[in-house]
Design brief:
3 helices, alpha+beta, two-stranded antiparallel ribbon, six-stranded antiparallel beta barrel, 139 residues, 17% helix
Length: 139
Amino acid sequence: MSRLHTDVVEVQRRDDEPAQFLWRGRLYVVREVLARWTESGGWWRTAAVQAVSSGGAAEGPGGAVPGGAVPGGAVPGGADAQGPDAQAGAQAAGPASVDDGEQDWFRVEAGAGRLGGTGVYDLCFSWSSGSWSLARVLD
């Protein structure tokens, strides 16, 4: 049985893995990392990628990027299709930002204190927000 949560937690890492976390005012010490996986978000659904594949304008940090520029200043269809002015404008606007919602997950065995038992917890690090959350407690 598992219980789903969306609680924000503070995590201290060691060797790029969670070593302990603070949840609901209690400190849990990670005894073992049972599994680790990464979930990439739907990068293929972002406006920038959709614009590149359809030949439209992509939204970059400064607004619309002429001709649907892709990172590195390339313009779909090449410079001949858009003209040299369009290519120069695309490079000046900079690359489109892509936030795909990638998350790193850790299934850990942890306990709160010597006398308390251990449990299994799913911790999630969101790259877009830079924060950790406790997603699941397994019984």
